[in-house]
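Q: I'm building a small set of examples for a reading group on sequence design. Run inverse folding on the following structure and report the sequence directly after it, with nothing in between.
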């Protein structure tokens, strides 16, 4: 129901100017993971699962949702492998990209991991429970050993084997052919892949003679976090679909819209962010809320800015932020300029003010309004500084800024935005540290890094990133090399986090991280990388919390020394730096959070609704109830600081919050279902068919065995899909009668349909074919068990069924239960009466003794859920000889390390997150204690598989 703002909220809004900044805003729901940073993602996905196997399955599931198999996003010369950056902004990955992402995540979870090349494919592997396990999020495939429970490792999947599933027959690739959990059937096709991919094809991928464990290279990265800060008069709306196809709506991938390679995936969404700074004296200068810096200017009445003195230039700087990656920036400004001697100009910086580019200069006199549309250099950045320069030659008032506003377009991954489900949804809104952030993530190829550095020595770079080693290296061996970056903040710095991805294989070589808070007079070394054992693909970050009071500038030094003649044997892949500082006014202000969605009705029509919540304090939880017949389509999420409420608003009635139509749909929380299938009583049994199959596109059934051979066709239509199928055109109405050989207890029936032509999608209600099932004990009298329902809904798809990348059901296995469930029907003969309305393909008909559905919650942990402190597996350093101060893992900082050691120092303010590998004292006892604590959560039913 809608409601009025509380009196307390009204007074709060009236009392405090709406220009204060609310920092690190987080909006998540219990329907999808928290993708704000790596620790949050891991906690939300795995925190409520008691065993490592279940944690890894949950991560596999959500990584299947978060990306699509297509041309990978390529940035700074590398395929983007930072999980948080990919999942928030992009989602375009291929096998090597998602394999590296999974390695990064498993490593951050504290697990040992491996990166494999296998016959033109790449997969990750993770160790737990004393063995290795493979999770292929490129093909959305996992396999078990013959026990049907233990997730198989890379070496298991392609080797020779035999069991009851193959009839005792020994075959190469036995696990791949017969024990895939995400396939249509044994010897069938993957259900969650990008195209038709048979298990036979997969078995060849895992050929034991073609397995290459990349001991030296993991193709991973991490360090990014999602930063959403809001100021007064600022609104950010994330649309869950693309808003356009012009270059203003995307970050180019090799010069093109990354969506263009596979428009069917509908990955890209767009955000729109508007900010109109308050140019009154109180907003600008009392607390410097609207601008981050101003020199030589003063406010004018009633609003605006002009130089402080005639003939002297003045400047005012505004910060424009994206949260998601920026694709375009539009500046709308109004100026006054009396003569040609006076100056109005705008410049922008994507290097935190280290370099500037003029983008507009007023060539008119009088009052001027103009719109400046920017792609470069804004495109691809996360923040842009906008500097307005003013100079009145004869009088200060001859050059004025009357108003300015910014409209920013961002790019986002539509698959990972906060979701809503049917019924009750819990929304969490919180705020993090009351700090703003400056982030450097420079491209290190060629000379692209130079605008970010203030000093360098003995540095060489490659024009293009080699991929399998770093791109920045020492020009001369056995000589010190370094890069120094400078980060200036408009207020006191509170924390610095810096590090990156490194490469060190040369004996006696090292990479050091150092920082200085006094302009380089003194340096503190926080860690050094000396380990030269593979893997040489190393991620490490350091966080410095104790920053001297009043510090507004920090120097960050990456120093290395290569002892090898091939100096790139000690090099740097990528670096990331973040400085947090206190905003001028971090007083919490009420937030408005609006979800907009469309409810799907039974007739597939859509009813658009929205819900607005006034968040008067944070953190807070509230409920959104969603109606409709199927899972809703979420259109957008808007977050803003509401404007000050004036007396006029009070007289006319307070703004309404709550549901847009004033109606609460109610309902219980939607719970997915896990499906288990019984024995297929029809497999291998003879059948008759009244109409012979046609032979188009490789289809046909000359031996009368295809429909019960146990091989279910692909989840896609067209192309090679008819190969394993029988095919009939409209008007040819076959009756397929299966003889089970003896009376059996039949609990359910299944049929796989595809095409042929046209390629109807059951999820769109397009399938017009009809199939009726009839049963008999004597082949004389038949009883109808009803018609298959081909009107498929998202809510009916089992959670353990991986949908294909294009999210269609053009090839799908439909189920029909007996008339009186849960009772089964005794029958020897089962008849499928098929009425095609197109060129219809059928690959398999099945008779099962049972199909079992069980409630299955995905157990998303919200940030304020009370979880045991031991809800994550402990991080462990790799290698027995690494000189590492292990300590307790701190999951509040990004990254991890391999072979990093703390330098001799008295500092105690460094937070480290160490990566995986090797053993630590009492590790087994620690893990057992943590898992016992997690077990006390008493979670809902765990998955049957794995």
């Amino acid at each position: 129901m809608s409601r009025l703002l509380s009196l307390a909220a009204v007074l709060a809004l009236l009392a405090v100017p709406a220009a204060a900044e609310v920092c690190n805003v987080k909006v998540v729901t219990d329907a999808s993971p928290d993708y704000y940073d790596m620790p949050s993602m891991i906690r939300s996905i795995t925190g409520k699962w008691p065993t490592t196997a279940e944690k890894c399955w949950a991560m596999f599931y959500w990584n299947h949702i978060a990306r699509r198999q297509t041309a990978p996003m390529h940035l700074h010369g590398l395929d983007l492998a930072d999980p948080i950056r990919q999942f928030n902004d992009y989602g375009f990955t291929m096998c090597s990209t998602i394999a590296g992402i999974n390695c990064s995540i498993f490593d951050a979870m504290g697990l040992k991991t491996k990166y494999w090349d296998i016959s033109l494919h790449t997969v990750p592997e993770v160790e737990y429970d004393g063995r290795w396990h493979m999770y292929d999020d490129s093909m959305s495939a996992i396999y078990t050993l013959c026990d049907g429970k233990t997730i198989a490792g890379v070496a298991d999947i392609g080797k020779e084997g035999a069991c009851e599933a193959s009839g005792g027959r020994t075959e190469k690739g036995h696990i791949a052919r017969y024990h895939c959990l995400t396939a249509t059937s044994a010897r069938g096709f993957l259900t969650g892949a990008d195209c038709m991919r048979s298990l036979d094809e997969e078995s060849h991928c895992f050929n034991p003679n073609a397995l290459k464990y990349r001991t030296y290279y993991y193709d991973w990265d991490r360090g990014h976090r999602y930063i959403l800060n809001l100021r007064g008069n600022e609104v950010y709306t994330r649309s869950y679909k693309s808003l356009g196809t012009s270059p203003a709506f995307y970050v180019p991938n090799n010069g093109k819209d990354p969506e263009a390679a596979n428009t069917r995936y509908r990955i890209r969404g767009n955000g729109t962010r508007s900010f109109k700074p308050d140019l009154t004296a109180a907003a600008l200068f009392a607390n410097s809320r609207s601008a981050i810096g101003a020199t030589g200017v003063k406010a004018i009445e009633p609003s605006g800015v002009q130089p402080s003195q005639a003939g002297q230039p003045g400047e005012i700087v505004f910060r424009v932020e994206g949260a998601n990656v920026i694709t375009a920036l539009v500046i709308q400004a109004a100026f006054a300029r009396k003569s040609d001697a006076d100056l109005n100009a705008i410049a922008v910086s994507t290097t935190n003010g280290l370099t500037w580019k003029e983008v507009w200069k007023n060539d008119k006199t009088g009052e001027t309004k103009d719109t400046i549309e920017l792609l470069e250099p804004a495109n691809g950045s996360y923040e842009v500084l906008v500097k307005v320069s003013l100079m009145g030659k004869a009088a200060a008032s001859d050059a004025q800024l009357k108003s300015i506003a910014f409209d920013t377009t961002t790019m986002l991954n539509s698959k990972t935005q906060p979701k809503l489900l049917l019924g009750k949804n819990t929304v969490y809104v919180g705020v993090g540290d009351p700090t703003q952030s400056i982030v450097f993530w420079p491209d290190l190829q060629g000379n692209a890094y130079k605008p970010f550095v203030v000093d360098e020595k003995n540095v060489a770079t490659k024009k293009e990133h080699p991929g399998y080693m770093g791109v920045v290296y020492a020009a001369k061996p056995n000589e010190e090399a370094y890069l120094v970056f400078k980060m200036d903040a408009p207020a006191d710095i509170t924390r610095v986090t810096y590090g990156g991805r490194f490469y060190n294989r040369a004996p006696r070589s090292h990479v050091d991280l150092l920082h200085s808070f006094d302009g380089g007079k003194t340096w503190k070394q926080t860690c050094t990388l000396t380990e030269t054992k593979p893997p040489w693909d190393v991620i490490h970050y350091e966080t410095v919390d104790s920053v001297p009071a009043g510090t507004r500038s920090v120097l960050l030094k990456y120093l290395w020394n290569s002892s090898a003649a091939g100096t790139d044997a000690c090099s740097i892949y990528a670096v990331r730096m973040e400085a947090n500082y206190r905003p001028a006014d971090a007083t919490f202000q009420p937030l408005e959070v609006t979800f907009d969605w469309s409810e799907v009705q039974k007739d597939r029509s859509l009813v658009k609704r929205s819900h607005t919540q006034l968040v008067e304090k944070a953190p807070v939880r509230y409920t959104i109830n969603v109606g409709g017949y199927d899972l809703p389509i979420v259109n957008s999420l808007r977050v803003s600081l509401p404007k000050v409420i004036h007396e006029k608003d009070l007289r006319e009635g307070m703004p309404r919050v709550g549901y847009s139509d004033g109606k609460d749909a109610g309902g219980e929380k939607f719970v997915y279902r896990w499906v288990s299938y019984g024995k297929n009583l029809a497999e291998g049994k003879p059948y008759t068919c009244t109409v012979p199959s046609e032979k188009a596109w490789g289809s046909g059934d000359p031996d009368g065995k295809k429909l019960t051979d146990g091989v279910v066709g692909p989840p896609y239509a067209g192309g090679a899909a008819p190969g394993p199928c029988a095919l009939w055109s409209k008007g040819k109405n076959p009756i397929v009668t299966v003889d089970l050989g003896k009376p059996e207890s039949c609990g359910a029936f299944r049929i796989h349909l595809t095409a042929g032509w046209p390629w109807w999608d059951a999820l769109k209600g397009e399938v017009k074919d009809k199939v009726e099932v009839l049963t008999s004990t004597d082949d004389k009298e038949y009883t109808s068990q009803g018609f298959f329902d081909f009107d498929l809904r998202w809510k009916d798809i089992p959670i353990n069924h991986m949908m294909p990348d294009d999210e269609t059901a053009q090839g799908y296995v439909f189920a029909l239960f007996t008339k009186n469930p849960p009772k089964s029907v005794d029958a020897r003969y089962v008849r499928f009466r098929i009425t095609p309305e197109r060129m219809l393909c059928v690959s398999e008909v099945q008779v099962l003794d049972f199909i079992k559905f069980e409630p299955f919650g995905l157990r998303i942990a919200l940030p304020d859920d009370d979880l045991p402190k031991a809800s994550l597996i402990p991080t462990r350093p790799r290698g027995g000889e690494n000189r590492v101060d292990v300590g307790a893992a701190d999951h509040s900082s990004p990254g991890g390390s391999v072979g990093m050691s703390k330098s001799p120092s008295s500092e105690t303010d460094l937070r480290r997150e160490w990566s995986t590998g090797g053993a630590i004292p009492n590790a087994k006892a620690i893990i057992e204690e943590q898992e016992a604590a997690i077990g006390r959560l008493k979670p809902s039913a765990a998955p049957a598989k794995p």
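The longest helix spans residues 52-66.
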